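Input (structure):
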């Protein structure tokens, strides 16, 4: 089996990887939100700021004969059977690489996943990383695979979905009115698209506030430039509609809270909840509920085709879970973080 690196130029590789991912989702999460080929390409490319981000794939399988080892396009079988994305953070968690291994359901249990994981571990070691991190839906093939490799289980997150059409009339407006009454001294602002220049510093502080959410890895440090490159630049290539609602302190003008929701134009029936956070010294005023209810009311006109919204929270994040449940989100599934030493994968 030959494992080959994508060089960011071959559209056939992206197309093949997307087909594998779609097949895997049909098998593991058939009711989850669809992911477009364009979004997959953007995740493969990273943010183009020099951070190592690698994609490797195979169009052969364990036990293939010599003909099966040919590269796609040279007369071999051609169809991609598995791939992995390796992300190597450059600011925090410098001992880690994060990997996503995907194998077509028709070719599982043939050694492809194991070969890709070992290859990823070798690449991680070459980049000076000592551990691989990843996540998978509980009960899925990926979760079972991680368990077989001896990965250490980490935080469990609950995935919830809101059926927008099933929300009782008046529920959102009532929750917003109650939150607004407790949030005197704050005003709301909103925008669609990249973070405006005058809001970069405020969003950076709110992104750092997200460090208070349960997480298995190091806290992230944000500034205006990181927002520019990691959010705005990537958004421009993805073509995703990014809606933001933020609460502003009337006294200081500081951004105190925010909530983000993403809509892929290719799948406008689905919304993907982004970050929702409140600065620590502004907590206790129901700002989290305020920005989320304001978002839902706005989306009724901004995204008229929206039917479902997916969000996820660590199972221990009782504050955000309470807000989501009050809004009508119901549990769709659970996901678990896995962590595995590179040395263990390579048998050192």
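Output (sequence):
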């Amino acid at each position: 089996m030959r494992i080959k690196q994508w060089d960011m130029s071959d559209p056939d590789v992206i197309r093949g990887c997307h087909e594998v991912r779609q097949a895997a989702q049909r098998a593991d999460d058939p009711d989850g939100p669809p992911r477009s080929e364009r979004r997959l390409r953007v995740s493969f490319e990273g943010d183009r700021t020099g951070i190592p981000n690698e994609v490797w794939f195979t169009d052969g399988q364990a036990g293939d004969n010599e003909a099966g080892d040919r590269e796609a396009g040279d007369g071999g079988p051609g169809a991609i059977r598995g791939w992995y994305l390796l992300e190597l953070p450059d600011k925090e968690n410098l001992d880690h690489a994060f990997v996503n291994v995907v194998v077509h359901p028709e070719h599982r249990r043939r050694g492809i996943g194991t070969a890709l994981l070992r290859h990823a571990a070798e690449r991680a070691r070459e980049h000076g990383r000592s551990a691989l991190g990843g996540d998978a839906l509980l009960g899925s093939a990926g979760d079972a695979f991680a368990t077989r490799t001896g990965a250490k289980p980490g935080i469990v997150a609950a995935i919830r979905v809101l059926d927008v059409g099933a929300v009782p009339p008046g529920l959102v407006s009532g929750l917003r009115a109650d939150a607004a009454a407790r949030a005197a001294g704050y005003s709301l602002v909103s925008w669609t698209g990249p973070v405006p220049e005058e809001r970069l510093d405020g969003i950076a502080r709110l992104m750092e506030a997200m460090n208070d959410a349960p997480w298995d890895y190091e806290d992230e440090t944000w500034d205006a430039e990181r927002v520019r490159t990691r959010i705005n630049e990537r958004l421009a290539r993805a073509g995703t509609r990014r809606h933001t609602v933020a609460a502003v302190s009337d006294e200081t003008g500081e951004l105190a809270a925010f909530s983000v929701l993403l809509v892929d134009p290719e799948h406008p029936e689905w919304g993907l909840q982004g970050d929702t956070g409140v600065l620590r010294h502004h907590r206790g005023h129901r700002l989290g509920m305020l920005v989320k209810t304001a978002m839902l009311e706005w989306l009724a006109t901004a995204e008229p085709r929206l039917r479902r919204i997916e969000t996820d929270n660590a199972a221990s994040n009782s504050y955000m879970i309470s807000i989501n449940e009050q809004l009508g989100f119901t549990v769709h599934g659970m996901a678990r973080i896995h962590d595995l030493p590179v040395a263990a994968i390579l048998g050192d």
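Notes: Residues 168-327 form a domain with the Aminopeptidase fold (CATH 3.40.630.30). Residues 61-77 have pLDDT under 50 and may be disordered.
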